């Protein structure tokens, strides 16, 4: 796990989304120049979805070889296929369906978490199926693919993916994916990558905006434990980034974001 996250603060949520999009395109282009294929883990939430829309609108997206990008999700809301509240549906609308329609992204590169109408009746069944698909693409000896970049939104309580403060999923050490019940953020049933799966990624980027995230951003960056503040466990093997707007960074002491705050 990488040590100290790098904090980058942008003027507002709009600029943040544009900057995340530019950074994502560049990261995928760099990975593809080295290895050809890239594994990208998407997030639900406002900034994450806005960033995908910004990728869709960017002429630089043509620099990516989408046929060699495998797309995953860090978590999913356990709802039927096509439900507008599914993270998959929102990402498809923002970016993925357009890329597929243009013939750039093969539909089979989109690895959605199995929906409530296809996975049987429980989030656990969906989690098991998703874990099996991840394992199919894993490197030898691992249970998930070598994620090149893993995006995470962050809730005002410090949750990332569908890992909520104090929930049993945070203690999971073996499985890569778990079913989640009683989520405080609707809907109550969800499916989530676990911390070990998240922390196996080469790069983990937390994207957050708004004053309601300011307190928890500070806690996540100042030594809190991941059971109390899951975002404190948002660390990649190589690099961890907190990509923020000024509002969410407003309670950070200047030593945590020395150059970006105005
Ligand atoms: O399915 C979800 O709801 C998430 O993936 C969740 O972890 C989200 O990313 C955060 O709650 C931030 O969401 P906002 O950016 O909308 O606050």
UniProtKB/TrEMBL annotation:
UniProt KW keywords: Hydrolase
Question: In what residue span(s) does the Glucosamine/galactosamine-6-phosphate isomerase domain sit?
Answer: 12-237
Catalytic function, reaction form: 6-phospho-D-glucono-1,5-lactone + H2O = 6-phospho-D-gluconate + H(+)
Function statement = Hydrolysis of 6-phosphogluconolactone to 6-phosphogluconate.
**Gene behind this chain?**
pgl
Q: What GO molecular functions are on record for this protein? A: 6-phosphogluconolactonase activity
The protein's name is 6-phosphogluconolactonase
Gene3D superfamilies for the chain: 3.40.50.1360
Q: Which family does it belong to?
A: Belongs to the glucosamine/galactosamine-6-phosphate isomerase family. 6-phosphogluconolactonase subfamily.
InterPro entries tied to this protein: 6-phosphogluconolactonase_DevB, 6PGL, Glc/Gal-6P_isomerase, NagB/RpiA_transferase-like
Q: What is its EC number?
A: 3.1.1.31
Q: Which CDD domains match?
A: 6PGL
Task: Extract the SUPFAM superfamilies matched here.
Answer: NagB/RpiA/CoA transferase-like
Q: Does the keyword Hydrolase apply?
A: yes
UniProt cross-references to Pfam families, sorted A to Z: Glucosamine_iso
**Pathway it acts in?**
Carbohydrate degradation; pentose phosphate pathway; D-ribulose 5-phosphate from D-glucose 6-phosphate (oxidative stage): step 2/3
Report the top EC class in one word.
Answer: hydrolase
Q: Which organism is it from?
A: Catenulispora pinistramenti
Q: What is the lineage of its organism?
A: Bacteria, Bacillati, Actinomycetota, Actinomycetes, Catenulisporales
């Amino acid at each position: 796990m990488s040590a100290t996250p790098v904090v980058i603060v942008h003027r507002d949520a709009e600029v943040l989304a544009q900057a995340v999009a530019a950074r994502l395109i560049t990261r995928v282009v760099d990975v593809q120049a080295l290895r050809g294929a890239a594994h990208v883990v998407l997030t639900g939430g406002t900034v994450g979805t806005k960033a995908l829309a910004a990728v869709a609108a960017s002429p630089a997206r043509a620099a990516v070889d989408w046929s060699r990008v495998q797309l995953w999700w860090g978590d999913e809301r356990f709802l039927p296929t096509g439900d507008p509240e599914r993270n998959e549906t929102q990402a498809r609308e923002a970016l993925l369906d357009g890329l597929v329609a243009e013939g750039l992204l093969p539909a089979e590169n989109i690895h959605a978490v199995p929906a409530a109408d296809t996975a049987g009746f429980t989030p656990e069944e969906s989690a098991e199926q998703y874990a099996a698909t991840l394992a199919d693409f894993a490197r030898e000896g691992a249970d998930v693919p070598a994620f090149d970049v893993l995006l995470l939104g962050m809730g005002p309580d410090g949750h990332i993916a569908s890992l909520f403060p104090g929930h049993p999923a945070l203690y999971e050490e073996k499985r890569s994916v778990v079913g989640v019940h009683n989520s405080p953020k609707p809907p109550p049933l969800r499916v989530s990558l676990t911390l070990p799966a998240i922390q196996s990624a080469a790069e983990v980027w937390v994207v957050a905006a708004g004053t309601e995230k300011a307190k928890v951003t500070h806690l996540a960056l100042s030594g809190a434990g991941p059971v109390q503040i899951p975002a404190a466990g948002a660390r990649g093997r190589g690099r961890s980034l907190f990509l923020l707007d000024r509002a969410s960074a407003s309670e950070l002491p200047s030593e945590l974001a020395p150059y970006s705050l105005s």
